[in-house]
Amino acid sequence: MNNQIKRVGVVGAGAMGSQIAMVCALAGYPVVLQDISQASLDRGIQSLQAQMQKRIDKGRLDERQVDEAFAKISTTLSLHGLSDADLIIEAATEKLDIKREVFKQLDSIVKVEAIFATNSSTIVSSKVADATFRPDKVCNIHFFNPALVMELVEVVKGPHTSEKTAQIAHDFVKSIKKTPVLLNKEISGFIANRILGKLMDEAVFLLENGYASHEEIDLVCTKALNHPIGPFALMDLTGIDVNYFVRMQRFEESGNEKDKPAELIREKVNKGELGRKTGKGFYTYS
Ligand SMILES: NC(=O)c1ccc[n+]([C@@H]2O[C@H](COP(=O)([O-])OP(=O)(O)OC[C@H]3O[C@@H](n4cnc5c(N)ncnc54)[C@H](O)[C@@H]3O)[C@@H](O)[C@H]2O)c1
Predict the structure, then answer these.
(1) Annotation marks residue 125 as catalytic
(2) What confidence tens digit (pLDDT) does each residue in 201-254 have?
(3) Which domains does the chain have, with CATH numbers?
(4) Residue numbers for the site described as Important for catalytic activity (predicted)?
(5) Which is the catalytic residue, given 154, 214, 243, 273?
(6) pTM of the model
(7) What beta strand segments (E) does the chain contain?
(8) Which pLDDT score is estimated for 102?
(9) Which of 1, 21, 98, 142 could form a disulfide with 10 if both were Cys (CB 3.0 to 4.6 A apart)?
(10) Which of 110-119, 147-156, 255-264 is predicted least confidently?
(11) Residue 15 annotated as binding?
């Protein structure tokens, strides 16, 4: 446990928020998980129950550990339920206006010493910090999907973030048994997704121009570069629409044509071939 952080509030109980809540609870933190949708809260907890059962079945955790972790998680539909938190991790839908409104409301609910972090994959914390009267206590804490499994977490210090806040966030990540990486300056996409983006661009370029099939490109990445999964299989896993929206957002920010999604990605999205979730992306799934 971290000295400064005794209680955690997580906003958004979707794919990321629910798992982040469990990661914190497994490390011993009491967590309040908030969402505007009861269905999302229910889905989040059900999904955690299924995933924890798998870990029990595989002998990675015992029932007592899982029961204790669930006992530390409470859920709420109201942001007021997070009033006692020392750290807020916001993992709501990836829309700037939603995130700004969440932080603005929380600012008058949560104690002034508390730290606010956004788990956004693309939105730097300076875009939300000025919605609060505590910009020095706002930063990015970016988990990877699935948060229960992925070890690395990017902590990003914006120009408004104090050294102390960045240090507490960094130490907190260590305390939940993850490996923190600290970015001293904020940049959209941070480190991993910027590097991955370049890899995916090149993979799509090679496919679009007929140099090789998507299977062969994936094979090179797994067998020559030792990546656990190729770029096309990965896009199918995360959703080709996610890739599309991230690129559109980057293009809207930069105005640079090079940041636009590739034509091939646009076609896939228009056809509804979004990857595993629709049964077809670059590959076909039964
Ligand atoms: N999915 C990923 O691979 C991934 C990886 C890293 C980071 N992220 C980031 O995590 C965040 C959440 O992504 P996700 O994939 O979990 O999304 P998701 O769509 O699975 O879940 C978002 C949740 O936010 C809730 N929500 C919407 N508006 C809200 C509000 N005003 N207050 C509280 N809850 C609200 C929704 O009901 C939903 O349950 C995004 O910022 C995303 O960029 C996603």
Answers:
(1) no
(2) 999 999 999 999 999 999 999 999 999 999 999 999 988 998 898 888 778 878
(3) 8-183 (3.40.50.720), 193-278 (1.10.1040.10)
(4) 142
(5) 154
(6) 0.91
(7) 8-11, 31-34, 73-76, 87-90, 115-118, 138-143, 152-156, 179-183
(8) 98
(9) 21
(10) 255-264
(11) yes
